[in-house]
Amino acid sequence: MTRDQTPSNAVELGAFLAGLPGVDEVGARGRAAALGTRSIKNDAKAWALDTAIGMVDLTTLEGMDTPGKVRAMCAKALRPDPTDPTTPSVAAVCVYGDLVDVARGAVGDAIHVAAVATAFPSGRASRQVKLMDTREAVAAGADEIDMVIDRGAFLAGDTWRVFEEIVAIKEACGSAHLKVILETGELRTLDNVRRASWLAMLAGADFIKTSTGKVTPAATPPVTLVMLEAVRDFERVTGRRIGVKAAGGIRTAKEAISYLVLVKETVGDAWLTPDLFRFGASTLLNDLLLQRQRMATGHYSGPDYVTID
Asked: What is the CATH number of domain 17-296?
């Protein structure tokens, strides 16, 4: 594919995806593990903690979510550490579509509001329902949509159906950015992760996202490495920069920093921005705040220093 080309039919798309080079799984896992052991100096760690905080999509996606819980999360998103005004805000809050208006009312225009859509997390609904889900979330104030692909169709080889659906959802987003969730824990192989990444980008994704957080395994360093390599190669071919969101299972500051090292070493400093890399998380922020406070004071605070999400 060149800068001006997109697949025009199922045969062309299938041929392109089949022609992608295979992933060296042993090599990918080894490289991800090696990068994960890198240590960084204290001044770089302070920068990394603030950078990671600014990349968080603070998330609540539970059936028992209430407007009150969403407002409390939004307050934390805006001022993660009320005792330290130098702490950056997070990148976005992420909620179900029916709570978008609550989130937007709480954060105003200060940070992004992301909505999961398209029958999240299963993706098992008609296209008409998925489009309505997306349009309603955007109308309520979402400026980012996190959609799930039809993994059944992808694994059955019906990649054109997946492609067309992403194209349709992207159009329904209007000016909102589209994050395409691959649900890599269900894709079985790193080869499939690479193919799904390219498919989503060719269809118009602004971000490719590892997981819903509802399937194990969720984000892993090898999967994220393959996705980062895909966006790197996609930019070389098309000139377009696509973001990556690692979501699910990232709970500690140490893990988050290792992902930042992975980003830097794979795609470079250009991706070390919330515009091109995000963490989808509900508990990660607390550990980032605790580590930040320890660096500032030299000791850890008690468990009541951060809110329990």
From this structure: 3.20.20.70
245 in active site:
yes
Residue 77 to residue 198: CA distance in whole angstroms: 32
Mind listing the pLDDT tens digit for each residue in 218-256? 999 999 999 999 999 999 999 999 999 999 999 999 999
Q: Are 222 and 32 in contact (CB under 8 A)?
A: yes
Write down the residue that tokens 């468990």 correspond to: 303
Identify the helix (H) or strand (E) that includes residue 57.
strand 56-59
214 is catalytic: no
Q: How far is 56 from 251, CA to CA, in rounded Å? A: 11
Q: Give me the residue label for tokens 């409390």.
A: 72
Active-site annotation holder among 76, 130, 170, 209: 209
Q: What is the pLDDT of residue 195?
A: 98
Q: Which residue out of 146, 150, 206, 287 is catalytically annotated? A: 146
CA atoms within a 13 Å half-sphere pointing along the CA-CB vector of 281: 26
Q: Which residues of 257-281 are buried (b: 16+ CB within 10 A; e: fewer)?
A: bbbbbbbbebbeeebbebebbbbbb
Record the tokens describing residue 163, joined without a space: 């492609």
Q: How far is CA 263 from CA 66, 177, 226, 258, in A?
A: 35, 21, 11, 9
Using DSSP's 3-state secondary structure scheme, residue 103 falls into helix
Dist CA 210 CA 213 (whole Å): 9
pTM, full prediction: 0.95
State in Å, rounded, how far the first CA of the chain is from the last one: 44
For the chain, which residues make up each domain, given as ranges? 17-296
Residue 162's closest CA among 171, 153, 170? 153
Q: Is the pLDDT of residue 146 over 90?
A: yes
Cβ proximity of 190 and 20 under 8 Å: no
Q: What does the longest C-alpha to C-alpha distance in the chain come to?
A: 60
Burial class (CB in 10 A: 0-12, 13-18, 19+), 63: exposed
